[in-house]
Amino acid sequence: MKKYFHVFNFYAFSFSILLYLLTSAINTKAAYWGLSYLEIGLINFVGCAFYVASALVFGRLGDKVGFKRSLSNGMFLMAVALVFGFFWTHPIHLVISVIGMNVFFGFFFPSVEGLLSKSERSAGVDPAATVIRFVLSWSAGNIVGMAFGPFLIQKIPVAVFTYGITLSLLGTLHIRSHIKRFGETIPGQFHDRMKTSPSKIDFPKIKDYRRAYRLTFLLAGIIYTSGMALFPKLISSTGIALENVGFLTVGANIGVFLSFVFMSFFRFWVGSPRISFLTMMAVFGASIITFFLPETAPTFFLATLFSGATYAVPYIFAIFYGLNSRDDDHGKQGGIHESMVGIIFGVGPLIGGYFLQIWASLRSMGIMSIGLISIVFVSQMTFIKKISAEW
User: Cβ(133)–Cβ(5) under 8 Å?
Assistant: First the structure.
């Protein structure tokens, strides 16, 4: 197993648990304190505005001072900031916490992406293998965090913040030791399967690929993040206890993880815009159907499951073409990608909150999704036509 995954994949996994413990805790508390759909959306929007700024400003620090050093310092500051979580008593505390956590994670993920992309490329690892292992790591962590976040914040809130503080402090000490022993490299022998010839990448037109898939990722991701932030309140309105909501909304993270597993085994999408387009349309269509089913517990699980797939498929395309670069700018490209993630997690709950404020029903999410996917369809057709013309 260690020839496939290493300690920095583990950090992507374990900090993703923390991210979703905190995210689901904030949204659950907001619902518990009676905030409206729009107010919950605004809290997420404010926090994610800081995620975008952090990704763009601090995401490229690793290119300049070293990825490991910046990660170590960031983890220490996160440990200090998490102490504030023990004192949540008012909605304004959620706003402060959501800003702090988004500043950290907006910096953390581009730094890990940059470190993995740069180090593994120099070790001869196929770029697709680097991306797939990274996304499998954080998506597995998301499942754990989302499933138990609502339960823990309602029943054992101290566990959420104790886990984060302990993880951050141990990470700080370990990475500082790692720098002394190995510098900025990631040691170890990678399995031969990951050192196949590099996947076909159309570098002369790489910017066209990046623009097209980042836009698709942005629009499709709104569907996913709307559900993540607002489904706790929507589901609880049907009589399901808040502490049990996570066991339904975790479907989104399972959908993300399973999609990544599928995309890792079948790499038909690499360098194939037409096949990628058909894959996305199939997933998007399935997602829309679930929004018009009767509102039962299984329906909510299916809706979140396919919403996760809707997010995951264009995510793979966006990060793969984004991080594959012939320039020494992996931190910069990671920062751009994570800024898109931040925009999605900020704008999605705000737009979804508006629709649900007008009509508190899964069907309103379905109407929103139809509009977004229609734009995706036009954008992708334009992109494919352009690429085909250049061929």
Answer: yes
CA distance 323 to 310: 21
The band of 205, judged by pLDDT with boundaries at 50, 70 and 90, is: confident
Cα torsion angle, 353, 356, 362, 367, sign = negative
Q: Which residues contact 296 (CB under 8 A, 6 or more apart)?
A: none
Measure the N-to-C terminal CA separation of the chain; round to a whole number of Å.
41
Q: Is 294 in contact with 274 (CB distance < 8 Å)?
A: no
Other Cβ atoms less than 10 A from the Cβ of 257: the count is 21
Q: What are phi and psi of 202, to 5 degrees?
A: -85, 75
| Single-letter amino acid, residue 17 | I
Block residue for tokens 């979804």:
352
| pLDDT at res. 350 | 85
- Nearest-10 Cα torsion for 191, 193, 197, 198: -80
pLDDT of 390 strictly over 60: no
Q: Are 188 and 194 in contact (CB under 8 A)?
A: no
- pLDDT (tens digit, 9 = 90+) per residue, 38-64? 898 889 889 988 998 998 888 777 777
DSSP per-residue string spanning 51-116 = HHHHHHHHTTHHHHH-HHHHHHHHHHHHHHHGGGGGG--SHHHHHHHHHHHHHHHHHHHHHHHHHH
- As a whole number of angstroms, the distance between CA 263 and CA 312 comes to 9
Statement: residue 261 has pLDDT above 60: yes
Q: What residues contact 241, with CB distance under 8 A and at least 6 apart?
A: none
Q: Judge whether 161 and 83 are in contact, CB under 8 Å.
A: yes
- 146: confidence class by pLDDT, cuts 50, 70, 90: confident
Name which of 8, 233, 31, 30 is nearest 113 in CA terms.
Answer: 8
Tally of residues, the chain: 391
